């Protein structure tokens, strides 16, 4: 049946979200460098704020790509 693998993927995604949430919750004060990397654009004016985390999102993309590659390789 087509819904059985779909349910398994939803559970795996849910577990991943919980694990990421626990990491951010328990180690949030140690992740202050994230979002303040060289290459992250931040413009703050009197009535205007603009933030574009280019380097941080590239880092997240690389980590997620590696995790998905390992997941597909072994599962």
TrEMBL record:
Q: What UniProt keywords are attached to this protein's entry?
A: Membrane, Transmembrane, Transmembrane helix
Give the stretches traversing the membrane.
9-28, 48-71
Ribonucleoprotein as UniProt keyword: no
Which superkingdom, per the lineage?
Bacteria
Q: What is this protein called?
A: DUF2905 family protein
InterPro entries noted in UniProt: DUF2905
């Amino acid at each position: 049946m087509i819904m059985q693998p779909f349910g398994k993927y939803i559970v795996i995604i849910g577990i991943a979200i919980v694990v990421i949430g626990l990491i951010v919750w328990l180690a949030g004060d140690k992740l202050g460098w994230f979002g303040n990397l060289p290459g992250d654009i931040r413009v703050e004016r009197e009535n205007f704020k603009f933030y574009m985390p280019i380097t941080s999102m590239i880092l997240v993309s690389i980590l997620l790509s590696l995790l998905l590659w390992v997941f597909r390789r072994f599962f």
